[in-house]
Amino acid sequence: MNKVEAVSKNQITTVKRSFLDSDNAVNLMYIPAFILFIIFVLYPLIEGVRISFTDWNGFSQSYDYIGIKNYLYMLTDKNMLIAFINTLIYGFGSTFFQQILGLGYAILLNNYFKGRDFARTLIYLPVLIAPIIMGYMWYFLFQYSNGALNDVLKLFGMQPIDWLAKGNVAVWIIVLVNTLQFCGISMVIYLAGLQTIPKMYYEASEIDGANAWQQFLHITLPLLKPSIVTSITINLIGGLKLFDAIKALTNGGPGYASHSISTLLSYTYFNNQSAGYASAMGIILFIFIILISLLSQILFNRKEVDY
Question: pTM value?
């Protein structure tokens, strides 16, 4: 072996070692995140599953394992059925209206006009406010006594309305509040998607005589598909686990009429002192959200759209 070959082999060995060392360094970077994931996600999830098979009241040092009784009881629990239906309304209702508002805002604010940046900021601003605070702000609007909306009705000689006294009305008011607060997320996602669509498609369609509605149906919507999938998934997850707005506006009332699974879970744990049953609710909600998210991904990703 001559000196040139020896030097070349040494260089290759050095490069391999440095490459392996860099891989090890990258792998070591994941360890803190993995530890945090185990402590704050995986362990609580496993512990929640374990507690869901018990009759623990949340504070006692002793409890008994009761198998799947908590899960079986859910099938006959009328309050759980109401909460489940409301959760679907909060999830799918909010998501539907958020897409309409978000896409409308995005199309409007994608065009340049004076004050556009201010309008974008104004629409997105509610997203930055804590949901519990936003819920109380809306409560002062809808409350029966001294509510801003009822004060306006009184000015016109009309009788005040107890907006939150009926469960079905309260549910849709909560949907409205959640929609108006988080439609800014959809707006930002759709704005990003609109800015990636080449303008030449619109110019070519104008030459072919397409109007604005035809351009929207055949160019904008198909090419916004990745943004639509992202927006729907994010909004759907947020709506299905809705808690703060319900807590602030109705606290699940009147009775159990406006509870979601999240708020009913909290009420069951702290008020009814039934931690085992509450844990079972949490596990069902967790599985349900995962299934809905996966189904939405599968449904909307069946057909790819390319430029």
Answer: 0.85
